[in-house]
Design the sequence.
């Protein structure tokens, strides 16, 4: 029982040492949060964009608090159509906008014009471009997983190192257990 506990603990320590935290955080696409763009010279408000970085074809939430009325229109070269703002439950105005699927990966300006009472706001959204076509021929019978299999290169170097380290720890644990058994059996 002790050797299995030792093997488990050693494996956990080895994994923690070999997998750096920045690599684990970089793998998360959800690491982008809202961005508040401060007032620009020719605007009297700002647009809050969530998420601030989005893939082409994705959606963003927009919020403004500069408008006196209940309606506004937001436009951007990145949007597939204008964003129409309505009152938000927690104050200000809210809209959703879809990013064009053919949008290039770069920063795009957003302009919001209040329909009542004047006023406008500006902001930015960053569009990232992800490859959506398979990089290898699609194998028959793969269904929806064919594209994922085509894009996957298999386990990388960190996974290989972790596997080798865990195999080494297991080998040492098994060898130690065998030595103990021989000693116990030999002393009788």
Sequence:
């Amino acid at each position: 029982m002790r050797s299995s506990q030792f093997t488990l603990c050693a494996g956990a320590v080895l994994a923690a040492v070999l997998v750096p935290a920045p690599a684990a955080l970089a793998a998360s696409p959800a690491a982008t949060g809202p961005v508040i763009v401060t007032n620009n010279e020719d605007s009297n408000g700002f647009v809050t964009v969530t998420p601030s970085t989005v893939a082409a074809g994705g959606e963003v939430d927009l919020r403004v608090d500069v408008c006196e009325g209940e309606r506004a229109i937001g436009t951007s070269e990145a949007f597939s159509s204008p964003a129409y703002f309505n009152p938000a439950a927690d104050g200000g105005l809210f809209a959703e906008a879809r990013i064009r699927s053919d949008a290039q990966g770069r920063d795009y300006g957003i302009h919001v014009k209040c329909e009542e009472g004047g006023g406008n706001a500006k902001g930015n959204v960053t569009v990232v471009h992800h490859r959506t076509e398979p990089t290898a021929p699609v194998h028959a019978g793969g269904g929806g997983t064919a594209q994922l299999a085509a894009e996957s290169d298999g386990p990388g170097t960190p996974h290989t190192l972790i596997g080798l380290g865990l195999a080494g720890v297991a080998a040492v644990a098994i060898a130690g257990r065998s030595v103990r058994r021989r000693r116990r059996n030999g002393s009788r």
User: Anything to note?
Assistant: Helices lie at 2-18, 21-26, 145-151, 157-186. The chain is about 30% helix and 25% strand.
